[in-house]
Amino acid sequence: MKFFKKLFIVSLAAIASSGCRKLNIAPTDSYSELDFWTTSANVYNALNNNYSLILTSGMYFNPEGMSDNAYSQSNSDLLLIGSGTANAQTAEFANDWAYYYKTIKSCNEFLANIDKNKTLDAATLTRLKAETRFIRAYEDFNLTKWYGDVPLVNDDITEDEAKVIPRTPKADVVNFILSELTAIIPSLPTQDQLALSENGRVTKGAALALEARVLLYQGNKMADVVTVCESLMNSQNGTYSLSPNYANLFSDPSTNKNNPETIFALQYVPTTTRTWSDFWDFCPNSVGGRTSALAPTQELVNDYIMLNGDTITQSGSGYDPTNPYVNRDPRLSATVVYDKYYWNNGNGINGTSKTIYIKPGSDPTDATTGQAGPDEYVADRESSSPTGYYWRKYFDPSAQANFVSGDNLYLFRYAEILLDYAEAKNSLGQMNATIWNETIGALRIRAGFTDPNATGYPASGDMTSIIRRERRVELALEGLRTDDIRRWKTAQVVLNGYAHGAQFSGDPTTDNGFIRAQKRSFNPNRDYLWAIPSGDLGLDKNLTQNPGY
Amino acid sequence: MVFAFLSGSTFINVRAAAITAKHVIAKDVVITGRVNDDQGQPLPGVSISITGTSFGTMTDLNGNYKLNVPEANAKGTLSFSFVGFAKEEVAIGEKTIINIALKPDNSKVLNEVVVVGYGTQRRSTINGAVNVVGAKDIGDKPVLNPLQALQGESPNLIIQQSTLDPGSNVSVNIRGVATLNNNDPLLVIDGISAQSINELNLLNPNDIASVTVLKDAGSAAIYGSRGANGVILVTTKSGKLNQKASISYDGTYGLQVPDVLVKKVSASDNAYYKNEALVNSGLPPAYTPEQIQQLAAQGKGTWDINHLLYNAPQQSQNVSLTGGSDKSYYFISGGYQNQMSNFIGNGGSGDKFGYQKYNLRLNETAIVGIFKLNAILEYTKSRNKTNSVGDNNIVADADRVPANYNWQDANGNYLTNPVASQYNEYGVLEQGGYNQADNDRVFGNLNGTVNITKDLKLTGVFGGTIENDGNFFRRTQVNYLPAGVYGNDLTTYDNNSKSNSFNTQVFANYNKTIAKDHNLGVTLGVSSEINSQNGFQLQKTLTDPTFGNATTGTLIDATNSYNSITVQANSLQSVFGRINYDYKNRYSVDFVFRDDASSKFAQGHRNGFFPSVNTGWLVSDESFMQPIKNVLDNLKLRATYGVVGNNQSAGNYTYQTTYFNYPAAYGFGNTANATSVVGGAGTNLSNPLLTWEKAATFNVGINFGLFNDKLTGTFDYFNKVTSNIQATPLDVPSIFGATPPQANVAKVRDQGWELELTYTLKTPGVTQSFSGNIANTKNTILALTGNAQQITYNEDVYQLIDAVGHPITQYYGYETNGFYQNQAQVNSYPKIAGNVVGVGDLKFKDLNGDGVIDAKDKTFIGDPFPHYTFGFTYRISVAGFDLSAFIQGVGKRDEFLRGELVEPFHYNYGATVYEHQLDFWTPENTDARFPRLATIGSASNTNNWRTGSNLYDFNAAYARLKNVNIGYTLPKSMTTKIGIQRLRVSLVGQNLLTLTKLKFIDPETSEFGNDENPTSASNSARAYLLPVYYGVGVDMTL
Fold it and tell me: Which tens digit of pLDDT belongs to each residue from B299-350?
C-alpha cells in the first residue's frame, strides 16, 4: 500500500505540475493588444486594412443594376430592388449597412490606438490619421446617401453603446463629413507629392473630389461645388488632366494603373489575391464569360449620341434602326458589346478575338450544332445576356483565368470633376462656351468626336439633358448612375415600366420587338431611401425606420 | 477478514474453507485449474465447492484456483458457480487439473459486463442510460465506416448522412440537439479520447468488439467537461487466455448500383413547358411548333446524370490471427477496404475515383505475476480521390441541361454546357483534375494493471495518436466545343497537417464486499491530455498543364499558401472518480464526478466540477415479486441526475484578443507589379469570460425481462437542460461594426424517450430474434441572449428561425393555402404587397386576419430534425442457414428542398423540367402540388417561388431495408477435413428498398450537421446518389 500511495502521489504531482504550465497556451501566430501597435509595420498593416475595406468590387458594380443602365437576371436583391419590392429584410440593405459600419469600426479602432506607437514621427501619424478619417468620411457619405439619417459613429463604440445609438439627421452627417474633409486636407499630400510607390494613397485631391461629390449631391450647394472643382482644375492641389484614350482607361492595364486622370481608385494588384473577377459574369460567353449577371439595357445604349452630335431620336441624325450601332459615340463600343461586335481579345488568356453573335439564329455555329450560339439572346438563359448586350468596359486583357484582374476601379476621376463642374455651372445659369470647352467639349474630343457639331458649344437644346446624358455615358458602369437618378429625382420616371434589351424579342407587337427584360417599379415616396435593416431596428431601440417601409 | 471479490448470492466464506483445509493437509488431493467465461476470459471470484460439503475456494484475478480436497471427498463433484453464469458440476474422478468454461446464464442478461468509463460494470448495477452494440451488429454490414454501421442500432443515437460519397463523414448525435454548437459526442477508443468523432471512420469495422453508448449524465459524468453530448466508447478486439491460435478471413465483394431518382422530361416537352411558362408570364413563347417538333425528332441525348455513373465495385478483405497461452494473448489483424465512386473517370490521371482504407492492428497482453501489461498498436492509411469540381456541381450541371443535349460529339469532343459554359462534367470527370486526400494514423495504447491486493488494482495508461492528413489538388484544363473551358487557372495545391494527441491516465479500482451483502466499488484517477496540430499549404496557379509543377507564368498564391507557424493546441487536466455501492444487487447507488481544467478558457473560468448521482432498484429481486417471477424475470428501475459539460464549442484561443497580419490586403504604386501589394492586419475580438456549457440531465429508466427473458426491453425518459450555451450574442446591432465575440448566453431544454425491445424465439433447430428500437427527442430554446426572442436566417428563398419556446432551427415563412382558382379569389383574397397574382398562383394564409399578407403572417413551417427514429433487426438461423434483415428509418421529418430539382426552370440556370415536377397547376389540374409555370422575374414566379413558404416542404419520413445478410455455414464435419473450423458464405444487400413519400432524393440527406446550424447551405437536392449494394461474402476460421 505504501508503494501505491507513493506512486499515486508522485503521479498526481507530476501531472499537476506539468499541467499548470500547459493550461496557459497562447496562439503562435498573432499579436496581443499589448504588443501590436508599438511595431510600426503593424500600424501600416492596420492602415492598409482600412484601405481594403473602402468598398468591394461587388458594391462598386451592383448599383449599376439598380439603375436604368443595367439589369441583373441572377442577383435576387437587385431583382427585388428593381421591381420595387425590396423591404427592410432585403439582404443588400442589411449587408451594405453592416459593411460600412465594419469599415467605420476598423477606422475608429485605428484612430483610438495609433498613438500607442512611439516610433513614428508626429507628421506621419497625423497623415495616417487623415487617410483613415478620409475613409471613414467616405463610408459615412455612402451611409447617408443610401439611408438618410444614420447613426454617426465616431468612436470605437462598445456593444452596449451600439444598442442605444440614435440616428443623426442627414444634414448633420453631411456637415460632419465636410468638416472632416476640411480638417484633414492640410495633412494630406498632393498627387504630385506622392512617391511612385505611394500611388493610390489618399491625397488632397481625393478629399476635394469627395467634397465636390458630397456638395453636388446636396443639390443646393452648387456654388461650393464650383469652388471645389476649380481648386482641382487649377492644379493647386495636384495636377490632373484627361487621359488621351477613353477605352484605354479601362482596358489597357498600364494606362489603368498610371494616368493623369485618376484622383482616387480602388487599388488592385495583378497576380496576387488583391484582385477582382466580376467581369467573368459581364462579358459574352464565347470569350470566356461564365454567366451574364449584369447586362446593359437598351435605354443606356440609346443615350449614346451619333458621331455628328445628334441624339438618335433627332430627325436627320442618320440613326439607322436596322444598323443601330454605327456612327455612334465611340464610348459605346468602349463600354457595351452589341450584336456583331468584334471582340478584340488583346492576347488575353480568356477566350479569343472574334465576332460576337447575339441576334437569335445569327451565329454561324448554329447550323452545325443545331443549338443557339453561346452569346445569342435566348429567353431565360443564365449564360447569355437577357438584354442582348454585354459589357466591354473594364475588360482586362491581362486578366488571369476566370477574369481575375488587377485593374483599378475608379472611385473619383477627373472626368467626373469636369462633369460636376459643368452641372454646377449650368444650374447656376453660368454655362457658356468656355465652360463647355473645358468640360463636355473636352470629354467629347477625348472620346474621339471630331464633328464640330458634337464637340462645340451647342446652339440649342436642353443643356441639362445634354449634361446628364454626357454624365451617363462617360461614367457608365462606374456605379454613379444610381446616385444621379436619385439626386435628380428622376428615378421615379426612369425606373417605372420595363427595362428593355435589344430588338430581339421576336414579338414586334410588344414594344416594337425590344426585349422586355424586367418590369420595374419605383415608389418616390419610399424608394429614394433604403430601408433601415430590420435586424438592427429591433436591436437598437433608438433607431427609427424610413418612411414607407 | 478476507471476502471474495465480486460476490453474488452464492457467496462463500473463504477463510472458513481455508482453515478447514489446514487441518487435513496431509491427506488432501490438490486440484488446480482455471475458470474462464465462454469467450475465454478468466473469471475471478468464481465460487468452487465440493458438492454437499462446506469445502470450497474461489478463483483469483486470473481465474486460477487451487483446492485441497480431503481424501474422503476425492470422488465427489466440484460445483462452479458465479453470478450471471450457469452453475456447472464436474466429477473429480482421477483428475487433478480441472479447467472449465462457464456459460453465461442467458436468463441473467443483466449480468453482462459492460465497458464504462475507466472500468467495467455489471449490467445489473448500471443505473444510467447505456446501450451496447455488439460486434455482430457492426461487422455484418457492408459498410466501410463504423459510424454507418451504428445507424439504427441504438435508440436516440441519430446518424445522418449528408452525402453517400465514398469516404464522406456522417453527422452523429445522441439524444437530439441540446446546444446551438457542436453536438458531437465524445469518442473514446480503447480508453483514449479521440479528437473528433470522425476518427471512428478510420477504424476497421471488423476490429470492433463492442460499442457502448453513454447517453445520460449519470453515465457520462466521468467524462466531465466533454460528456454533455454523450460518449461513444469503442473497445477493439483482443485475444483470450488459453485460446488455440486461429486465423480468420472474411471478405466481401459487391457492386454499388447507383439509383437515379430523377428523370428529365423530353426536350420537346421541356420546350412546350417553357412556352407555357413564358406565356403565363405575359411573354412571347420561345419555341415555335416546328421547333418543338424538331426537338421531338432529335430524341434523347446523353446529357444526364446516368451517363456520368457506372456500377462501381466495393470490396473488403480482412485477415486476423488470435490466440493465447496461460500468460499472454494476442490479436493481430489486417484489413483492406475499397469503395469506388460511382462517378466515371479519374480526373485525367491515376486511379479511378474512390476510397481505400488499410488497417493493421496488434493487441498483445502479457501477465507477469500481479502485473498485466497490454499494448495496442494500430496503423491506418486511407486515401480518398474525388473530382475537382464537387459532387453538387456535377449533379447540378447534369440536371440543368435539357434532355436533347449530348456530353460529347461523335468524335469524342466535349460539348459546351448551354447553361453554364465551363461545365461539361463528363469532361471534368475524365480530364479536369482531382482532389486526393491521404490520411495516415498511428494509434498506440500502452497500459498496465497491477493487482496490489485482491481488492485493489492500479492502472496506468499512456496512449495517443499521431496523425498526418494530406491533400493534393489539381485542376486541369478541359476544352469544349464550340466554346468554353474548364480549369484554365491550372491550380495545384498541396497541404499537410500533422496532429498529436497524448493522454496519460492513472487510476485505481477498489472493489470490496462487506458483510456478505454490501458491495462497494471505488474508482479514482487523474488524467492529462495534450493535443496539438499544425500544417502547411502551398498553392500555385497556372502550373504546367501536364505535371502541375512550376513553369513560365506560374504564380504562388500567397494568401492560400501558409507555413506551419499556426499551432492549434489545447490541454485538459482532470481528476475523476466513481463510488458505487449496492446491497444484494437489489439496491444500488453510485456517485460519479470529474473535475476538469481546460486550456480553452481563461484562468478563473477554466475549472469545472461535474457530478452525478445514480440509483437503481432491482424490483424483481424483492420477495413480494416472487409470485410472478415466472412471468416477470426481472424488473429494474433506475434514476440518475447529473451535470456534465461541453467544451467543444470553444476555440483554442477564443478568450484572448489577438491581432494578426495577412498578405495582399491592398496595393499601392502605379505599376502593374505584384511588388506593390501590401499586407494588412485584423483583429479577433475576444470574450475573456468564456467558459463551458453545462448540461443538467435527469434520466429515469426501466429494464425488464419477461417469459424467461424471451422478451427483454429497456425504456428511458430524460430531461436535459443545457445552459451557458456559447453563442454569438444576438442583441448587438451591426452598427457595433463587428460580430460580437461569443458568450455563454443561450439555454436549451431537451426532452425525450427511448425504447428498446428484443424477443427471442428458440425452437429446436430454429433460433429467431426480433429486436427493435424507437426514440424521440424534442428540444426547446429557453433563452437566446438576454431578452432576445428570436433570430431569423435567410436561407435563399425561405428563412430559418431560432426562437425562444421553439425547437432549435425551424423552417420559417408563410403557410400556403391552395391556389387562386378564379379571378374572384384573385380580387378578394389577401396578398403580399407588391405581389401581383393570377389564377394558378399560391395563396398564403392570413394568419393574423388583418387582410394583408406580411411578415406578421410568417410562422413555423417545418422541423428539419428527425423524430421517431427507429431500427429493427430480424435474425433467423436454421440448419446452417442464417439471415438477418435490418430496417432503419425516421418517423417524422420535414425537409425543405429548393433549386432546379424543385422549381421548374429555376432562375435561369435551370433550363429543365422533371417528371416529378409535373403536378403543377393548370385549369385542368386545380388540385396540384405546385403552382402554375412561370418564368423568373415574373410576378407569378415572385409570388410562388421567391416568397418563402411551405411550398418547399417535403415529408422526409422513411423506412429503409438497409441491410440484408443471408449466410450458409458449411457443416463442420465437412470443413474440418480440409482444415477449416468454420466456413460461411453469404449474400449481402444494402439499401435494397425504401418506403418514403419523397421520391426524387434520398430522404436521409440533410443540409444540416448535427448542430442544426442555421447558416448551413440550403438543400438543393443534389446529393451524391444512393448506391444500392449487392455483394457476396466469405468468412472462415482456420
Answer: 899 999 999 999 999 999 999 999 988 889 999 999 999 999 999 999 999 9
Stretch B587-602: mean pLDDT: 92
Residues in chain A: 549
Distance CA A501, CA B62 (A): 89
Residue of A nearest to B659 (CA): A31
Q: How many CB atoms lie within 10 A of CB A321?
A: 8
The pLDDT score that the predictor gives to residue B663 is 87
The DSSP bridge partners found for residue B234 are: B189, B211
Q: Is A469 helix (H, G, I), strand (E, B) or coil?
A: helix
- A422 three-class SS: helix
* DSSP letters spanning A239-308: -----S-HHHHHH-HHHHHS-TTEEEEE---TTSSS-B-GGGGTS-GGGT-----SEE-HHHHHTS-BTT
Report which listed range, A127-131, A257-261, B404-408, B637-641, is most confident.
A127-131
d(CA B995, CA B612): 42
Closest CA to B213 of B147, B157, B169: B157
Handedness of CA A429, A435, A437, A438 (dihedral sign): negative
Closest by alpha carbon to B522, among B538, B508, B542? B508
pLDDT at B142 over 90: no
* Helix/strand/coil percentages in chain B, nearest 5: 15, 50, 35
Q: Do the beta carbons of residue B971 and residue B991 sit within 8 Å?
A: no
C-alpha distances (whole Å) from B856 to each of B851, B852, B853, B859 are 11, 9, 8, 8
* DSSP, residue by residue, B743-773: EEEEEEEEEEEEEEEEEEEEETTEEEEEEEE
DSSP single-letter state for residue A404: B
Q: Do B603 and A273 touch (CB under 8 A)?
A: no
Q: All 3 cell numbers of residue B29?
A: 488431493
- What would the DSSP string read from start to end of B829-850? S--BTT----TTSEEE--TT-S
Q: Quote the distance between the C-alpha of residue B97 and its chain's center.
A: 48
Task: Say if residues A473 and A465 touch (Cβ distance below 8 Å).
Answer: no
Residue A17 has pLDDT above 60, yes or no: no
Residue B773 CB partners (closer than 8 Å, separation 6+) = B152, B153, B154, B155, B754, B755, B756, B757, B870, B871, B872
Which residue from A29, A269, A402 is facing B489, i.e. has the nearest CB?
Answer: A402
State percent of chain B over pLDDT 70: 95
In whole angstroms, what is the distance from residue B189 CA to residue B209 CA?
11
Residue A413 burial class via C-beta count within 10 angstroms: exposed 0-12, middle 13-18, buried 19 and up: buried
DSSP string, B4-52: -TT--TT---HHHHHHHHHHTGGGPEEEEEEEEETTS-B-TT-EEEETT
Nearest to B308 by CA among B389, B410, B253: B389
Cβ–Cβ gap A269/B664 under 8 Å: yes
d(CA B706, CA B634): 7
> What is the C-alpha separation between B561 and B540, in angstroms, rounded?
8
E runs forming strands in B855-923? 859-862, 867-878, 881-892, 894-896
Contact check, Cβ <8 Å, A49/B682: yes
Contact B526/A11, CB-based, under 8 Å? yes
Cβ-Cβ contacts under 8 Å, A385 against chain B? none
Which residue from A minimizes the CA distance to B568?
A27
The answer to whether residue A27 scores a pLDDT higher than 60 is yes
Mean of pLDDT values over B641-670: 88
Q: Which residues of B542-623 form beta strands (DSSP E)? A: 555-556, 568-583, 587-598, 607-618
Please write the tens of the pLDDT for every residue from B251-295: 999 999 998 989 999 999 999 999 999 899 887 788 889 889 988
Encode A237-272: b = buried (16+ Cβ within 10 Å), e = exposed.
bbebebbeebbebbbbbebbbbbebbbbbbbbbbbb
